[in-house]
Amino acid sequence: MQDAQNTAISNEYRSVPISILVESATNPRKRFDEKNLEELAASMRAQGILAPLLVRELEESKYEVVAGARRLRAAKLAELENLPVRVVKLTDAEAIEAQCVENLQREDIHPLEEALGFKSLLELGQPTYTIASIAARTGKSEAYIYGRIRLAEPYESHPLP
Q1: Mean pLDDT of successive 10-residue segments in the chain (161 residues)?
Q2: Which of 23, 30, 82, 86 has the most other CB atoms within 10 Å of its CB?
């Protein structure tokens, strides 16, 4: 995470068209409550977006949403044209780690989504993550991480609806 902290220093805040933002395929969050999205969209219409989305540049004029998929979906429902973003330079591993940590901070995280996030870190090539390193970076115990990862094992043949 040290590298992520170093690269986060070279970030940039800007407003970008919603059309150039794409959700990250590696985001462990897969479930979005439609009613809550509609409520958030109504709030966005009235107040705007109060916290920028965390994005990384994929190519010129295209950004991947690392953190803020729910806000992106609600903004689309609210038919907003531009969104505030914070652009950071992250490797694939750093992006997945940021997504896992951000999802852990959610109150309503589903255990399987959490498990899939941890499992994706373990499956990365470089850098190599271990249960111990994930526990240290997320503030959870090794037993907690191991238990969650075991939840993801049967997921391969039975994905979330």
Answers
A1: 44 91 86 90 91 90 92 95 94 84 73 84 80 86 91 63 49
A2: 86
